[in-house]
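Can't paste images in this forum, so I'm doing it all in text. The chain is below; anyone willing to post the predicted structure tokens underneath?
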Amino acid sequence: MPSFDIVSEVDQQEVDNALNQARKELATRFDFKGSAAVILYEKDKITLTAEDAGRLRGLREIVIGKLSKRGVDLRNINQGEPNISPLGHARQELKIQHGLEGDKAKEIIHAIKGAGFKVQSALQDRQIRVTGKKKDDLQAVIQFVRSRDFGVATNFKNFRD
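Text version of the structure:
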């Protein structure tokens, strides 16, 4: 039976390239000269640090702009609240979301079942496997999922006959 997977992934290489571009721009911008603004990238987390809230806002705009230009879907970037210390130092975490979490996956599965397609869909290891008897049904499901906004990036992989 033909099948495919609905996944929600972020290309790590594109994130790394975007952050390198942001660091280069940070080094050349006049308003950040002599500033201690830092961009740290760990697994699934970007930490932004600056001297004050204004510079943190500018730093966040640079990073978000570079991520969007590199094709990283911003729906998978969760922006935490900025932490501002009494001394004025500001810090913010941007978390990168991989995979479909429980509520979002259930919402997508219910939408597919509610639309009346002749397919089966099941959650398997943070991705949704959709199987059907005809390729046309699967392609209709892909078009349906692309047309709706579920609040996360949806990609399609492993199309099998």
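The helical segments are 12-28, 53-69, 102-114, 135-147. The chain has a mean pLDDT of 87.
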